[in-house]
Task: structure prediction
Amino acid sequence: MTPAPTTASAPPVLDLSHLTRRYGSLTAVDDVSLRLPPGARHAVIGPNGAGKTTLLNLIAGTDRPDHGTIALDGTDITRKATARRSRLGIARSFQQPSVISELTVLDNVVLAGWPHHPKRRGAWRSRSRHRLHTESAGGHLETVGLADLAHRPASTLSHGQRRMLDLAAALAGNPRLLLLDEPAAGLTDGGIGRLLAILGGLPESVAIILVEHHVEVVAQLATTVTVLAAGGVLLTGPTQEVLTHPEVREAYHGSGTTEVGTAGDAPDAAVTNFVASGTGSAGTEARG
Result:
């Protein structure tokens, strides 16, 4: 199974070519290549320790590859700094929400969007420019359902609300590519429903790469999936085909192809249930 082809009229928004990242004797990402078209809804799954978060780190620029290249909209960004990649259109949420507790909910989003605003210079000294930032931030809070909490300290938010604030902050830069690292972790069923509604409502101009243990989220949001095993690509293809593929079933049943060598590296139970049944109905959310 190979990556879904892109058309000549739509060059890939993201092109990863033979990415490799080593930490001493451990190869965390091993010769990974992936091409995503604009507007892609793509998930990356795999057992704990398979290299999923490291792959997001490489794309975002918080880590650098030992080998390979990363291109965004045809521009090589392999050696560009994280801030530069952000301004070019890459935004990210984290496994643990990145929220400044001392600021209000609104100011968290204002601060996140400030580097991307066309009139950012002097915004804190100009009432009119600051108002533009504030109005834009308020719109993102409306998107994620936090507008009523705009003036509360971020420290008072629940876990689910902090996750939504983290997402609003990521959207504040009007990204071309949104990297989501386990956005459903710790959310209630209602929270997951809201998350899916928000992500499903994003414009096609925003491509999404989703790392997620909750397979029902993957099944409902992603149109294509990459399975990582021991840092390398096991399969890439349409979601249903990948999640029910015999190789994926074998990997998630502990065949040894996905073992990374630490005690915590266990297959995700939700994925195991999904691929075992072939139905996409995962009874529980596994964490790890």
Summary: Residues 142 and 148 are 8 Å apart (CA to CA). The two ends are 27 Å apart (CA to CA).
